[in-house]
Amino acid sequence: MSKFQPPADNPKQPDRNFDDLAARFSRTIYATPRGQLRLLALRTDFTDLAIALKNTRVLDIGGGQGQFSLELAQQGAAVSLCDISAEMLLLAKDQFAAASLPLTSAQCSLQQVDDFFPGQYDIVLNHAVLEWLEDPFAALPLLTDKVRPGGWLSLMFYNLHGHQWRQLMNGRTHAPASANPRLREEGNAPQHPLDPAAVETHLLRLGLAVKRWRGIRCVHDHMHQKIRDRIGQDKVNQADLAFGLQEPYRQFGRYVHFLAQKI
Prior knowledge:
CATH architecture of one domain: 3-Layer(aba) Sandwich
Order of helices and strands: HHEHEHEHEHEHHHEHHE
CATH topology of one domain: Rossmann fold
CATH class of one domain: Alpha Beta
Strand content: 15-25%
Largest sheet: 7 strands, mixed
């Protein structure tokens, strides 16, 4: 979950580093129903597209605690993981060690990733990273360069439409396209929600074809907690998985997941 810093000569505000929130994210994201739904959606997409994992090389850029890349390693993938947060990397190493699985890791920025992990990979993961960058679209060519021809980019990002719809439902009728700066400082809200159509256009220009376009938490986040409790999380998850692939519902997902193949 934690992210990258721009080069030192970049005058913009540094991208968010989550050293201070690593343990909190472990408790409040992946240990919750919404975090489990995120993993279920990713798992389903990889399964549906029959993406080979055994003996594949996976690079998880901004991998944080490595929850999903650990699942890929359990299916035979060789995982390399980088993150700018030392605390997140420690959590990832602990998880892989507990599963008796190897992990190659490095603490580095997105701009440095080729220095630590040269060459191209069968699968590149970049989950919940772009929205924390000061210049999200500048990262897409760097990510694309790490994918071998025929390989896959698994890109998950905070969705502008889901963000704005949530703001409207909370009474913020001007539906701001960016998060409250105070919430950003507290680590609670990404600053740069992204338009999926714009991201897809950039990927196409870079030579990637989007094969799976899913909205994640398009049902879950817009259903009252009392109703979720009444019908049960399994039914909520199944509805989210189904409608997350359908227009117009997927447009309201809190996150978007693209599986894009390099042409």
